[in-house]
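Retry 2 of 3 after timeout on previous attempt. Resubmitting C-alpha cells to design endpoint.
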C-alpha cells in the first residue's frame, strides 16, 4: 500500500536566540516506510548529538529488520518485540555510554590518586599512570559539562502490511487520526503528572514544567512502550516533538492535517500562532492572551512527521 508522508523540523526561538542548534532529528525512509523522530537534551550541543546518534543507530537496525521481513527471516508478529528488545536498547547503549564515559575516566583518575596515597608509588607505576590519565581526566571534566544529562526522546515506527509498529521513549507524542477526523493519542508521556486528573490542554501546560522520568541515555536499561496500529484507507499518523504538542491542540492538529499538501504550512502556522493552547496557558498562568501567544509561539524546536494511508 502507498503512503503520503510529509515532515518538517525547525529551530525554536529559545535556541535561535542563544545561537544554538536544532536539537530535534528525524528520518523518513519512504521506500521502507521507516519513520523516526527524536528530541535531544543536554548541555551545549550534546542534545543534537544525542538525537542524531539515536536516529542513526535505530535506522541502521530498522533497515536490517525490514530486510529480515522481506526475506522471511523475521515474522511480522515478532517485529515489535525486536524493536523493543533489540533495536532501541542497541541505540540507547550508545547514548548512555557517551554520557557516562567522562565520569568513569574521572573516577579512575581519583582512584589512582587514592592508591598512590595509601600504598605508595609502586615503583613509579602509579605516577606514570597518573601522568597519562591526568590530561584525559581534565578533558573529560570539560567534556562532561557538555554531556551532562545528555539524552533524547524517541518515536520509532515501521509500517509493514498496513500495520504500524511504534516504539516510544520520552514525551514525544504519536496520534492516530481516522478518516472521520477522530483523533486518538496513542502514546503516554514519560513524565510524572502526579494524582491530578486534568483536561488534556491543562495537562499539556503542566507538562511544560516537568522533567522526563524516562529517556534514551538515562541508564543502561530503560522501559520502552510498544504499539501496533492497523491503518485503514485515509488514516493518518502524526509523530510530533513537544515543540508542536505544547503549542497546538488536538482539534487544531485535525484541522491542520486534513489537506496533506497544506499540512506542513498549517501545522507550523499553529505552532507560530497558538490558539487553544495559548488560551489555556493564559488562564492557568494568569497572563494576557497576547503574552501567552508571544511566549509559546515557536518557543521550542519543532519537528513532526505526518503519514496518510492512500487507497
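Retry 2 succeeded. Sequence:
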Amino acid at each position: 500500500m502507498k503512503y503520503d508522508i510529509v515532515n518538517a523540523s525547525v529551530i525554536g526561538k529559545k535556541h535561535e536566540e542563544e545561537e544554538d542548534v536544532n536539537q530535534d532529528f528525524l528520518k523518513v525512509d519512504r521506500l521502507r516506510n521507516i519513520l523516526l523522530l527524536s528530541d535531544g537534551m543536554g548541555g551545549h550541543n550534546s542534545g543534537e548529538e544525542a538525537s542524531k546518534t539515536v536516529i542513526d543507530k535505530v535506522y541502521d537496525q530498522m533497515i536490517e529488520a525490514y530486510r529480515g521481513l522481506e526475506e522471511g527471516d523475521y515474522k511480522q508478529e515478532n517485529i515489535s518485540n525486536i524493536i523493543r528488545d533489540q533495536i532501541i536498547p542497541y541505540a540507547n547503549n550508545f547514548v548512555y555510554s557517551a554520557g557516562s564515559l567522562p565520569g568513569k575516566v574521572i573516577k579512575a583518575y581519583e582512584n589512582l590518586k587514592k592508591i598512590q596515597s595509601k600504598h605508595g608509588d609502586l615503583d613509579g607505576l602509579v605516577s606514570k599512570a597518573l601522568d597519562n590519565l591526568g590530561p584525559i581526566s581534565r578533558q573529560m571534566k570539560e567534556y562532561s559539562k557538555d554531556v551532562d544529562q545528555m539524552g533524547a526522546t524517541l518515536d520509532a515506527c515501521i509500517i509493514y502490511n498496513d500495520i504500524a509498529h511504534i516504539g516510544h521513549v520520552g514525551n514525544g507524542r504519536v496520534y492516530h487520526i481516522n478518516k472521520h477526523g477522530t483523533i486518538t493519542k496513542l502514546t503516554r508521556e514519560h513524565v510524572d503528572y502526579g494524582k491530578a486528573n486534568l483536561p488534556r490542554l491543562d495537562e499539556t501546560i503542566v507538562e511544560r514544567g516537568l522533567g522526563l522520568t524516562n529517556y534514551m541515555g538515562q541508564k543502561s536499561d530503560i522501559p520502552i512502550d510498544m504499539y501496533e496500529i492497523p491503518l485503514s484507507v485515509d488514516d493518518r499518523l502524526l509523530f510530533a516533538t513537544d515543540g508542536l504538542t505544547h503549542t497546538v491542540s488536538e482539534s487544531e492538529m485535525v484541522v491542520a492535517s486534513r489537506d496533506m499538501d497544506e499540512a506542513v504550512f498549517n501545522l507550523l502556522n499553529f505552532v507560530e500562532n497558538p490558539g487553544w493552547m495559548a488560551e489555556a496557558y493564559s488562564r492557568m498562568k494568569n497572563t494576557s492572551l497576547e503574552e501567552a501567544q508571544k511566549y509559546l509561539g515557536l518557543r521550542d524546536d519543532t519537528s513532526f512527521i505526518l503519514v496518510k494511508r492512500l487507497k
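Attempt log closed. The chain has two domains: 3-89+153-309, 98-146.
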